[in-house]
Each structure stands twice: as C-alpha cells, then as structure tokens.
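User: Um, what's this?
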Amino acid sequence: MTSRRNFIRNTAMVSALAATKPVHGFNILHKDKAPDETIVGHGQYTYKVDKNWAKISVNNTPLMNCHEMVQDSKGRLIMLGDSTHNNVLIFDKSGKLLDYWGHGFPGGHGLTLSQEGGEEFLLITDCGWYQDRDGSNKGQAGQVVKTDLTGRLIFSIGHPRTIGVYKDDEMFKPTETAVAPNGDIYVADGYGSDYIIQYNSKGQYIRHFGGHHNANKAHNLVNAHGVSVDLRDKNNPTLVCTSREENCFKIFTLDGKFIKQVDMPGMYVCRAVMNEKELYAGVCWSKDAKTGERFNNSGFLTILDADNKVISNPGGTAPVYKNGVLQQTFQAPTPVFNHGHDVCVDDEKNLYLCQWNANHTPPVKLTRV
C-alpha cells in the first residue's frame, strides 16, 4: 500500500478525466541494454520475457505503479496506474501507445472491463492510498468509478457509510471490482474493511459479506485484494475472492455463501483472472525459504487449471504436490520479476504482467512458447 502518486482531488476529476493528448516520439522507460531472452514457466505454460515491450515516453507518460490491465474487443490493452499524469494508458499488442488519459486517481488500483448492450465500459477503483508532494504516504476514502473507454464518467460508488452500510469507524479503501452476467457489481474493500459489497448495475446496494466477524472464521477475508466472477462452469458461476494475507482464494456463490478455500502456500496472490479453463494471478510477494518471512521483490505469476491445481509458476519454482496438497512455492532462484500485481491474457494467450513497486517499470510481456 506504499508508493502512491501526487494527490489530486477526485471530486474535481470529471473534466480532466476525459482529456487526451497526442502521442509524441518516445524513449522506452528503463530499456535494458539487450533484448531479454529469459524463459519462464513450467510444462506447457512457458513464456519468453520482454521487459522492453511498452514503447512509452519518459516525458509524456511517466509511471509510478502499473496496477492492472484488460484487453477490449478491439484487441487494445488498457492499463491503469497511479500516476495522475496519465492514469490510463492504451496500447496495441506491439507495445505502441495509442492513447492516454485520466488525472483524478492518485490511488488508481483496480480495472475491470464490462459489456452492456454491445458497448464496453471500465470500472476504475481508486484505493485511497497515495503519495503527497513530500513523498509521504497518505490515505483517504476510496471510490469506484464507471466510465466509457474514453474516460467519460457514468457514475461513481462512494463510501458505504453514506448509505448506512458501514459503521463510522469502518474504512473504505476498495481494491477491485467484478461484474456478473446480470450486471451486478462486486466491490472488494481489500485495503479497508475486507468486505465484498454487491451492487446492482446502477450502483445500488444489495448486500455485503466477508469481513472479519463471521462465526465461521473460514468465511472471513484478510486483505480481500481481489474479486472475480468465475464462469468456467456455466451452470455454477461463482466468485473467486482473494484473501491475500492468508495466501489463498476463497470461493463464494454469487449471493455471498462460502463454498471452499483454495490454498496457495507462500503466495500473496492478487486477483484471479479467468481465461477459458485457466486461472491466472499475479503473486505480489512470496516468502524466504530459510526464514519463512515475506520479503520485497519476491513476486512472480501463478497459473491454475480448471480444478484449481497449480500448473505453472512463471518466475517462481515449479509446483509440487504431496498427497494432493500443494507445497510452499518460492520465487525462482534467479529473480525475474519484482511484485506481480495483475496478469492480462490476450487473444493469442500471451501474458502482460503489471507490477507494483517495480522502479516505475511498464508492463512486461510474456510471449507463450
């Protein structure tokens, strides 16, 4: 929750949000001296790493943290970060920058693509954490904003306390959203009170669940960093909720009933990204093999099959199961990534890794081999 960008008040964002600028000549941020031919992954899920994929300008499109990325129906890759110079960057698959906009999300964190009536929209989550002009980390209430793909504001979802859902002492610092087939919106309050809050397609409250106070502790969430709608089983759609501090995913019905837990030993996983039969996730941290403690710059990616079995850990050690139980996973002996925050899977099954706290680096492309 550190390293957040300069504070610009969100309440004044609407006119600035949709503003765009022409794309000028570029200098690649943090360009390596030579092309990276590193291969990562396991089994049939191996990838060539390209850290120089994004062709962006240090002057026109500075970065802080690249938090999340989605691909729209035109094949464009839309990235959200927390630099208020350009919260949203839009690329083609070659890494060429097509557009950039947005100045009102100093805590830009979660990005979800939704479709309604043939039109696509973005749900942008500002978690409320930011860095002030002196470099100090500060916090304020977060928000969720729905826009079109050019940044035009549709509506926003603010603090649940304003509608009597939260108590006065409960923080709201949302980290992620997910959208169900009927249009319902699920908000993960991952840096606040750890609830999953369900709204209808108009942003009207339905229910909330998770949090810290369930009689059955398995139903609690601890750092509810991500939420995703899982439609891999068309007859039984579910919610995959991240409980990052517990190193696991927790599965719920769409109306908030707990189903089961998927343990990810040693992996501080972010949101689950479903693509066909697989589940992909960034791993923000892992643990030291000797001390068992979480440490910085220890992230990677993980990939699970339809049975929620880990089948590859690009940038991490190979998955090992004993008697059907996944053993602790570590970062690979030769580190490749810093902090895996989100994975985007394109229409050719290539991956794009967005990283938090990675020296202002742009997304990394992983081409499947």
